[in-house]
Amino acid sequence: MKTEQQKRKIISKGGIILLLLLIAVSVLLVWMFTPKDDSIGVAQIMLDGKCVKTINLLTAKDSTFTLENCENVHFEIKNHQIRFVNVNCPDHLCEQFGFISHPGQTAVCMPNRVSVTIVGTDAKTDGIVN
Amino acid sequence: MTKRKWYSVAAGLLIAFGCGGCTSQQKPMNAELYVMDTQVTQQVYGADAKKASEAVNRRLSELEQLLSLYVESSEISKINENAGKTPVKVDTYTFNLLKKGRSFSEKSNGLFDITIAPLSTLWGITSDHPKVPSENEIASALDHVSYQNLILDEGAQTAFLKEEGMAIDLGGIAKGYFCEEIESIYADYRVDSALISIGGNIYTYHKKPDGSPYRLGIRNPLSDSANDLMGILSSHDEVVATTGTYERYFVQDGVRYHHILDLKTGYPCDSDLISVTVVAKDGALADALSTTLFLAGKEAIPSYINHPDFSVIVIDEENRVYVSPSLADRFTIEDDTFTRANGFEEAA
Lengths: 130, 348
Known about the structure:
The complex is a heterodimer. Chain A has two domains: 4-33; 42-119, Sandwich (mini-chromosome maintenance (MCM) complex, domain 2), CATH 2.60.320. Chain A contains three helices and eight strands. In chain A, strands 2-1-7-6 form a four-stranded antiparallel β-sheet. Chain A has a three-stranded antiparallel β-sheet with strand order 3-4-5. Chain A has helices spanning 4-8, 13-33, 93-96, and strands at 42-47, 50-56, 63-67, 70-78, 81-85, 106-109, 114-119, 127-129. In chain A, β1 (42-47) and β2 (50-56) form a beta hairpin. Chain B has three domains: 25-69 and 171-208, Roll (T-fold); 78-161, ApbE-like superfamily (T-fold), CATH 1.10.3980.10; 213-348, Roll (T-fold). Chain B has helices at 3-18, 49-67, 75-81, 92-107, 117-123, 135-143, 174-188, 283-296, 301-304, and strands spanning 29-35, 38-45, 88-89, 150-153, 158-161, 193-198, 201-205, 214-219, 229-235, 238-244, 249-252, 255-258, 273-280, 310-316, 320-323, 331-333, 339-340. Chain B is globular. Chain B starts with a helix and ends in an 8-residue tail after the last strand. The A-B interface holds A 13, 16, 20, 23-24, 27-28, 46, 48-49, 90-91, 96-98, 100, 104-108, 110-111, 113, 115, 117, 124-130 and B 1, 6, 9-10, 13, 16-18, 31-34, 37-39, 41, 43, 57, 128-129, 195, 197, 200-202, 208, 214-219, 224-227, 229, 232-233, 240-242, 244, 246-247, 250, 277.
């Protein structure tokens, strides 16, 4: 059986300081090397009212993709921006929204009931009247 | 250093590094719905935000079944089918909305008419197959547009269109009218704060949880993208509705035809304004007025810019912006293309 004094020695005062310093340095390093740009947000894609995909545009690579249950709609990601492309719908108004990347921006394809909204902490507005 | 002090240091470091990114900001419940040919989005704050947003979506779906011109079993479709034949008994909600729509049609001097359906369906601008009708077709449709021939019987709670071929279209007023119903649902669920966009009309319920008003972007009417803003309005507990020719249109033989129809000509209107935004507590008023004032044109601005029941942000063809004095300290222009008009006399 270890005495109370022996138990205390398992982590010494110096050890605690070292441990805390290591935690602090690790957190600092993670923070320093995480890309940061509040003006670029996360694209949240909704299909018929349900969120089907989220993409961090800051780290996203250039690509084109479609949705699993809605192949009428395609999206293009380029230079940390996203837009509707090659959409099978009567009016193609969704494609006119162009590229979006800033929090608060949104694009919608009414006929296919698909929308993409950019979420983030740096939104200029809470909504757009149009 | 005592044991207690070590704990304090450790706790301090954990707070500083472990929870440094935490904030006390509430996150909203976001919901989206497609109803009545428009997109509805909600941001709702409160303990029962999810239940509240679901209740709003359920009610809007019910109202679509009750009021849509394009739902065969709706009460509006039944009134239209029975035009010239027999009065139709309707729900109290439908009756009150029809009463409001008829009354507004009367006050608008023929600029707004809830019996516009024969003309709007003829053009089909919001449909998949819009077309430019012949002059004869337009003249015939205009003959069937007349709110005076909508007979509402308060006692029997019936609606009757006197002539066959007449039809009601509540598209210009219903979305704004729904805001009253939505306010009562949010109140029932003790919502702290909410923003709902119904087809581009925005209703704000209370201030944001941090106590600040909502910041609403007003769309740049010169841009094809709905994300380009011309200005920002601080807003709470009111409805903001905008009308511009950018909303819905089609192009035929190189000519662009927009959705705001002039009942004097039967064609898309040729207004000297490019955008009208109306801010009001009464959602139906904001919704219907934004279209009506757009049709009324620039010369009418001095007659309403100081109105006690609503405020406006109006943009003319020279990109001059006329702002009601009641909005002066909560509206800012964000795009240099637009300049604030020096006085209302400029519009006269």
